[in-house]
Amino acid sequence: MSGSGRLRRRVGVLISGSGSNLQALIDSCATPESPAEIVLVISNRDDAYGLTRARNAGIATCTIDHTAFPDRPSFERKILSALSEQGVEIVCLAGFMRILTPGFVEQWEDRMLNVHPSLLPDYKGLHTHQRALDDGADWHGCTVHLVRPALDDGPLVVQARVPVLDGDDADSLAARVLVQEHRIYPLALQLLAAGRVEVKGDTALIDGLTGPLSPDAVSQPKVS
Ligand code: GRF
């Protein structure tokens, strides 16, 4: 139960690597007011450091190695059964480096979030920081969105901008963006879990206002 006496939404997080976004989600769910509780972390790689972060927080983990399955649907069936065994209601993709089939994504419509290191719809896919630099962009950033079958597509929930500075390279820009990812992902999860995100067509409405929300527009998620 959350501090307000409501049941918390049960969250599963899918990772492949370091899990710094996972850590930000874990930290944000540690408060009694959080409407979300992380109940399971799944990695497709057993050497993902995020698994250690989850265990340190007392969260159940499992590794589902994609190379052990003959095809994507069978890999995803295993993920689905792990999520349903834990009663997961919301899925967060946090650096999960496998493409998901439309069949999987559609089962989690409006209940699955992803964080992407660009100001979507700009720079879908990989190497976002270098591509922004190559274009001479003045601004870059990150987005948390509801997941749709197309890559890095879906209603935008929260977006944070960072300036591109003279002398930036892809690493320095990525580091500045990552700080913002760690702000906006917890915020988006709390908003979704609290029932403050409504989807109309391709657009997310947050408290009735057209998204994406800027993290600077709210200091704390409202707790009702
Ligand atoms: C982040 O930059 C995220 O935007 C991208 O993969 C990276 C994952 O980092 N999808 P971490 O594993 O959360 O540290």
What would your notes on this structure say?
The protein is α/β, with parallel strands linked by helices. It has a single domain (9-217), classed as Rossmann fold (3-Layer(aba) Sandwich), CATH 3.40.50. Helix content is 31%, strand content 24%. The chain has a 7-stranded mixed sheet, sandwiched between helices. Helix 4 (102-107) links the parallel strand 4 (90-93) and strand 5. Helix 1 packs parallel to helix 6. The radius of gyration is 17 Å and the shape is globular. It binds 5-O-phosphono-beta-D-ribofuranosylamine. 5-O-phosphono-beta-D-ribofuranosylamine binds next to helix 1, strand 5 and helix 6.
Keywords:
three-stranded antiparallel sheet, binds 5-O-phosphono-beta-D-ribofuranosylamine, 224 residues, globular, Rossmann fold, single chain
Detail the poorly predicted runs. Answer: 219-224
Written as H for each helix and E for each strand, in order along the chain, the element string is: EHEHEHEHEHEEHEEE
CATH superfamily: Formyl transferase, N-terminal domain
User: What is the level-2 CATH architecture name?
Assistant: 3-Layer(aba) Sandwich
**For the largest beta sheet, what order do the strands appear in spatially?**
3-2-1-4-5-6-7
Mean pLDDT level: 95
Q: Please give the number of β-strands.
A: 10
Tally of structural domains: 1
Summarize the amount of helix as a percent range: 25-40%
Number of helices: 6
Which fold name corresponds to the CATH topology? Rossmann fold
Bound ligands, each once: 5-O-phosphono-beta-D-ribofuranosylamine
| Helix-strand category | alpha/beta
- Give the biggest beta sheet: 7 strands, mixed
